Amino acid sequence: MVKAVRGMRDILPNQARRWDLVEQTLTRVLQQHAYEAIRLPLLEFTELFARGVGEATDIVEKEMYTLADRDGDSLSLRPEGTASSVRMLQEYGLLYNQTQRVYYAGPMFRYEKPQKGRYRQFYQIGAEAYGFVGPDIDAELIGLAWACWQALGIESMVNLEINTLGSSEARQRYRKALVDFLTPKSEQLDEDSRRRLTTNPMRILDSKNPATQALLNEAPKLPDFVDAQSLEHYAGLKQLLAAMQIPYRENPNLVRGLDYYTHTVFEWVTQDLGSQGAVCAGGRYDGLVERLGGRSTPGVGFAIGLDRVVLLHELAQANVEAEDRSADVYLCVTHPECNGAALVVANSLRAALPTLRVRQHMGGGNLKKQLKKADASGAVVAILIDDESLDQQTLTIKHLRDAGLGQETVTFEAGIARLQQH
Ligand code: ATP
Ligand code: MG
Asked: Is-above-0.85 flag for pTM?
């Protein structure tokens, strides 16, 4: 037997029900905020991510699935959605003289060490807004994520952390100060951090290594380098979060792994998933569009890690799997010749009762056996199709969950009205 590739997830039917529920809930919240759906390709030129995510990031350095196309082009499976969304909007002139609020959803690919909450194919839902400079849109996006947690009933399990990186000049100044401070002490750093000192020094702030963290206590602090205009933006954001009554914690060490962030960065973190603590991450990336070859355009957005949100939802509401009904109505036939009639009646029922799941018995067998299957399906009623059902436009309904109701033969219309009550 060929097995699944390590880290590529299978979502089984009983899990998919929860996934559907979570995705539908998040999509509804995004639409309520008037964000518009876009769909992005799974494959892009590798160069898009090298430029858009940054050469010195973990993602581009060691996590991408890169392959040569048959004509020799270097392509990569998308590790995230922001670079693609900028590429697409730019390519169709949709960033020029206009604003955009969009969202995307789907699988992303990163070559990481698989564990609970961390996979090589994982799922994100991301929202992006382009063309807005003020902190109001930052606040709207954070509020949008908050509305998602509330809609899923997991708001008590996540905490918001925010920070500002300042303008890109301020960020550069800080970067230099940090490198100047750490370079003479580099032998005290953990191995990853030592490597980052030359590639992506601000990522060192993220290090979990205690010795590195101790050293960082003495290091120059990012907030001391942030420019006045950024601080004003940040103050504006904090005021709006307070107005929306969204609790947050300022974390001066929050820098995010991607190169392109400026000003606001934020993360929603949880204590409930071990070391896979981040469930949503985002911020402002005013330099990104230009970096990808477009005109300078402000941008801000976030990506929700769906796999981790589904795990939290499982902790918060265990009962979705317990509900194992796979059908609401189960059609049986009294004779094999009635199969054709049953197919027709099943479709009439689906048309009349679009929210119910109508399953038809397949593979024959006596009525007793069919009713056993009907019972196992979790259906509330079985419909028994006989010679007369189609001609007479009647439905014979057998109530499976309430023995007192027994069995009745009624007109199609009366039957529909009956089924609507379920
Ligand atoms: P982490 O620090 O957990 O690796 P990240 O900073 O690499 O996260 P982002 O690139 O910001 O993650 O992606 C946004 C969200 O996508 C994360 O907060 C997380 O919920 C989710 N995510 C990222 N990588 C994975 C993965 N390999 N498996 C499952 N979810 C992931
Ligand atoms: Mg990562």
From this structure: yes
User: pLDDT tens digits for 272-305?
Assistant: 999 889 999 999 999 899 999 999 999 999 999 9
| Distance (Å, whole) CA 414 – CA 132 | 56
Pocket lining for ligand 1, CB < 6 angstroms:
80, 110, 112, 117-119, 122, 124, 257, 276, 278-281, 303, 305, 307-308
What pLDDT digit, counting tens, does each position of 12-49 carry? 988 998 999 999 999 999 999 999 999 999 999 999 99
User: Domain 13-167+227-316 is of which CATH architecture?
Assistant: 2-Layer Sandwich (3.30)
Q: Where are the domains of the chain?
A: 13-167+227-316, 326-419
Contact yes or no for 397/383 (Cβ under 8 A): yes
User: How many angstroms separate the alpha carbon of residue 258 from the centre of ligand 2?
Assistant: 10
